[in-house]
């Protein structure tokens, strides 16, 4: 597992979720692992962070958020950034979301509640 954490430390992550409790939990975990990351509360904030930090490698996003949902965010990012990978972390596991997410060529779709080990494995594998 330490090898995977070391790989994770080489990346810059952007986590997008409007739930403060999830932001806080993930922030605590990533800080303890000494990972480079940013947190945005919605898609619009995520795009602003990306404009200022063009070296972000990975976006982990919720689907249902105010202003711009996670699927719209991925579509918008893919227009301008070709080397970013995506994971969707959502409470939704319904087929329409899965089909649309798969059409966006994402690396993973994880269902909440978040399992940090699965998230790390999906990012670095």
Tell me the layout of helices and strands:
Blueprint (H helix, E strand, L loop, with lengths): L1 H8 L2 E5 L3 H13 L3 E5 L2 H10 L5 E4 L8 H11 L4 E6 L4 H9 L4 E4 L4 H9 L1
Parallel strand pairs: 1-2, 1-3, 3-4, 4-5
Report on the architecture of this protein.
The chain is of the alpha/beta class. It contains six helices and five strands, in the order H-E-H-E-H-E-H-E-H-E-H. It has helices spanning 2-9, 20-32, 43-52, 70-80, 95-103, 116-124; strands at residues 12-16, 36-40, 58-61, 85-90, 108-111. Helix 5 links the parallel strand 4 and strand 5. Helix 3 packs parallel to helix 4 (70-80). The termini are close together. The model has no long low-confidence stretch (mean pLDDT 91).
In sequence order, what are the helices and strands, one letter per element?
Answer: HEHEHEHEHEH
Q: Main sheet, how many strands, which sense, barrel?
A: 5 strands, parallel
Number of helices: 6
Radius of gyration over C-alpha positions, nearest whole angstrom: 13 Å
State the helical fraction: 40-55%
Number of strands: 5
Arrangement of strands in the largest sheet: 2-1-3-4-5
Percent strand equals: 15-25%
- Catalogue the unreliable spans: none
Distance between the termini: 12 Å
Mean residue pLDDT: 91
Given helix and strand content, the structural type is: alpha/beta
- Principal-axis shape equals globular
């Amino acid at each position: 597992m330490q090898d995977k954490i070391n790989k994770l430390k080489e990346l810059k992550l952007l986590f997008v979720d409007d739930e403060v409790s999830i932001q806080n939990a993930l922030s605590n975990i990533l800080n303890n692992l000494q990972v480079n990351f940013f947190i945005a509360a919605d898609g619009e904030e995520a795009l602003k962070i990306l404009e200022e930090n063009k070296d972000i490698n990975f976006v982990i996003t919720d689907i249902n958020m105010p202003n711009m949902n996670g699927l719209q965010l991925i579509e918008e990012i893919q227009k301008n950034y070709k080397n970013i990978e995506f994971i969707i972390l959502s409470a939704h596991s319904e087929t329409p979301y899965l089909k649309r997410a798969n059409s966006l060529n994402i690396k993973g779709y994880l269902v909440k509640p978040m399992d940090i080990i699965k998230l790390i494995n999906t990012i670095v594998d």
